[in-house]
Amino acid sequence: METIDWGKLGFGYMKTDFNIRCLFKNGAWGEPYLTDDENINLHMAATCLHYGQEAFEGLKAFRGADGLVRIFRARDNAERLRSSADYLRMAMPPVELFVDMVKKVVAASERFMPPYGTGASLYIRPLLIGSGAQVGVKPSEETLLVIFVTPVGPYFKEGFNPIKAIIDRHHDRAAPLGTGHVKSGGNYGASLLALEEGHKKGYANVIFLDPKEKRYIDEIGAANFFGIKDNTYVTPLSHSVLPSITNMSLRTLAADMGLKVEDRQIPVEELATFEEAGACGTAAVISPVGVIFDPDSNTTYTFGDGRTAGPWSTKLYKTLQAIQYGEQHDAHGWCELI
Ligand SMILES: Cc1ncc(COP(=O)(O)O)c(C=O)c1O
């Protein structure tokens, strides 16, 4: 059995012992089953390959200070996957089925669960695909749910240090009334070129604007955006933003801490007024943003000193992590214990 250097883990795929699968066929979900097969035997006319019938999720399990394993907000990921499935016309997995499958695959992957104190966690990746054959543009009659796990370290190599981001007005990750609000693979394919161009210019991430008017902040790479000023946590309200479960949690924690919380459009120029800014998502929890460059107006927006994370972002980050690692009471009942 190989030994894993938990401290050196990045955000990549490592083979584990099992994944779990369940097939919707003939109008019903079958029995979930664990398998050690990393491949999916798929019909060449499967709708996921041709017509983008694909959605996925991302969530994490943590080994707590008390030795227990906690899965963070799995029910909310189940609900979001259902909403993606509904929009993309795939069978919607029941919440209980999804949560049971997550628990089973995590329990079967115990030896890949990073120990407490390493900063690493077990990433859980559910994917839902139209697996039935069609040639015409119509939904598959079969839907396959696969959930695999892989141990990961912190997502952003910069760690909890502010990153620099660039505004991109030349690409959209989703259309105004399109698929931005669901977690569909096509959105990510559509974001790759923008991210690559941003990286080449020396920026760790790219800010996508609202695809209709290009006036408001939408998302930052594969994460939600937030800004903080005047004791207020502000995050974009837009049809083309994915409802981030981390952002939902941060809004709740921000309110617990006495901050005002606003979900509303954020005009680009308002960036000049934020004391702190951040990207939030499962992978990093919070990646503080120090600088945002707008190449079209040649404006640089700096948050704080641009080099150190702000006090609210730090407090929010630490509080959410403390709940995930069982160091702080889970007052909102977000963690499922294995
Ligand atoms: C486009 C996009 N926005 C936001 C997020 C953050 O969502 P969550 O906090 O549920 O991970 C993700 C990651 O899942 C994402 O891919």
How does the overall form come out from the CA principal axes? globular
Instruction: Summarize the main sheet.
Output: 9 strands, antiparallel
Proportion of β residues?
25-35%
Bound molecules: pyridoxal-5'-phosphate
Number of strands: 18
CATH architecture of the largest domain: Alpha-Beta Barrel
The CATH class of the largest domain turns out to be Alpha Beta
Q: Based on helices, strands and strand pairing, what is the structural class?
A: alpha+beta
Distance between the termini: 24 Å
The tally of structural domains comes to 2
Q: Calculate Rg over CA atoms.
A: 20 Å
| Count of individual helical segments | 7
- Spans where pLDDT lies below 50 across 5 or more residues: none
Question: What string gives the helices and strands in order?
Answer: EEEHEEEHHEEEHHEEEEHEEEEHE
Integer average pLDDT: 96
CATH topology of the largest domain: D-amino Acid Aminotransferase, Chain A, domain 2
Name the CATH homologous superfamily of the largest domain: D-amino Acid Aminotransferase, subunit A, domain 2
Could you outline the blueprint of secondary structure elements for this entry?
Elements: E1 19-25, E2 28-29, E3 33-35, H1 47-50, E4 54-56, E5 59-63, E6 69-72, H2 74-87, H3 95-108, E7 121-130, E8 143-152, E9 163-168, H4 185-189, H5 192-200, E10 205-209, E11 217-220, E12 223-229, E13 232-235, H6 245-256, E14 260-263, E15 276-281, E16 285-294, E17 299-302, H7 311-324, E18 335-337
Parallel strand pairs: 9-10, 9-16, 13-14
Antiparallel strand pairs: 1-2, 1-3, 1-8, 4-7, 5-6, 5-7, 6-18, 7-8, 10-11, 11-12, 12-13, 12-15, 15-16, 16-17
Helix pairs in contact: 2-3, 6-7
Pyridoxal-5'-phosphate (PLP) binds next to strand 12 and helix 6.
